[in-house]
Amino acid sequence: MSLNELCSKYLKLLSEKTKKSRTLYDRACKVLPAGVTYSIRFFEPCPFYVIKAKGCKIYDVDGNVYTDYWVGHGALILGHSHEEVVKAVKEQVELGSHFGYAHELEVELAELIIKHVPNAEMIRFTNSGTEANMYAVRLVRAYTGRKKIVKFEGGWHGGYDSLHVGVSPPYRGPESAGLPEEIIANTIVAPFNDIEGVERIFKNYGKDIAGVIIEPVLGAGGAIPAKRDFLKALRELCDKYGSLLVFDEVITGFRLALGGGQEYYNVNADVIVMGKIIGGGYPIGAFASCREVMSKLDHLKYKNKMERSFHGGTFTGNPISMTAGKATIKVLERPGTYDKLNSLGEYIIKSLKKVVEDFKLKVFITGEGSIIGIHFTYEHPWCARIAHTRRWNEDVYKLIHKFMLVNGIAYMTEHTVHFLLSTVHSKEDADYLIQKFTEFLDLIKPYVPKEAMT
């Protein structure tokens, strides 16, 4: 039997467990392209359809229960349906779900975020991380008067045209049809965790570079942390050439620490992009900076539209998102919250590494805090290029995804193994994950390529 044949076996087991989901999926295919509302939500044999979620558990229409390590794309750091968030939202719904006018809640959430996030003196809200990155890049260009933006291989900053390049191999050219080459002509893709490569880019384009955008921990790129020295060197390069350093903290913001990646790594950014957690499970995004940079958005200061950077949107500052975000951050402020969350992540990472060591396989565990990745690669993936191009094969990634689902563990996607924790995941949940990972390695050991054995 091969890994591919094993995968077929587990696909059959999943099919037997998700018959009602299959019926729903067949309906969905008639009205939704590929049957889903976002491509990563599709996986073989078909997506399971969630009917309820509470804590770190999700329940599907077939009665299956899964421990959720995706937690709403990482947005639900307190877990699903947290009592305090639910209570606050219910109260706000009675008062109004969308005003379309200014209200106190947007001021209160802004004050709360600025209180904790370094170098954020002013903030603007959006409806998604993609929008936040779009407006942040526009602001950086408006402030510096320059055009070029540097981003990194494997870095995912949403679907915004200018940044939709360099996400997957071969890390050049558009990542989508309908995206003309000229749209990304001013976007430079740099190697992740390779400061010499970035230095060469600055030597060639330094005075034209408006900003550098980076995820402190690659998300879609494989839960790969930036090296601290690398982040510090980026800070120095931006200072030297007058460029702005942008931290895309849509994932790491309020996840690694109250102050996000800046606090965790002790490196300052000029512009901070946020999303997910600050909305408490409701649609949101935000970008923040110092008062001087953010003043470029001030239409009262800059009367001429070509002197200022535009930002707006129907649902910006939506009262439900503001309310849920406030309630979430208030819980995160409690002493010991991050110590407990990050300790559980460190426990899982350390334990998974020990399992791999015992099996003597080339499997690498990456991550930081409550962000965890597993890589079946021939060398340690310190960058997305290695994580994507030095894999044993794709079958092992598909198989572990099916194996975990059959055993009641859910995560996205079938192409990358990464887990996101919430404050309600327990040591028992962690031990079960470690146990199933151990069983998985035992299952596949007879089929492991010789080059993947240590």
What is the secondary structure topology, with strand pairs?
Elements: H1 3-17, H2 19-31, E1 50-54, E2 57-60, E3 65-68, H3 83-95, H4 104-116, E4 122-126, H5 129-144, E5 148-152, E6 187-190, H6 195-205, E7 209-214, E8 217-218, E9 224-225, H7 228-241, E10 244-249, H8 260-265, E11 271-275, E12 285-289, H9 291-294, H10 319-332, H11 337-359, E13 364-368, E14 371-375, H12 384-389, H13 395-406, E15 409-410, E16 417-420, H14 427-444
Parallel strand pairs: 3-15, 5-6, 5-7, 7-10, 10-11
Antiparallel strand pairs: 1-2, 2-3, 4-12, 8-9, 11-12, 13-14, 14-16
Largest sheet descriptor: 7 strands, mixed
CATH level-4 homologous superfamily of the largest domain:
Type I PLP-dependent aspartate aminotransferase-like (Major domain)
Overall residue-averaged pLDDT value? 97
Percentage beta strand: 15-25%
State the strand order across the main sheet: 4-12-11-10-7-5-6
CATH architecture of the largest domain: 3-Layer(aba) Sandwich
Shape: globular
CATH class annotation of the largest domain: Alpha Beta
Low-confidence stretches: none
Question: Care to count the β-strands?
Answer: 16
Descriptive overview:
- The chain has 14 helices and 16 strands.
- It is α/β, with parallel strands linked by helices.
- It has a seven-stranded mixed beta sheet with strand order 4-12-11-10-7-5-6, with helices on both faces.
- Helix 6 (195-205) runs parallel beside helix 7.
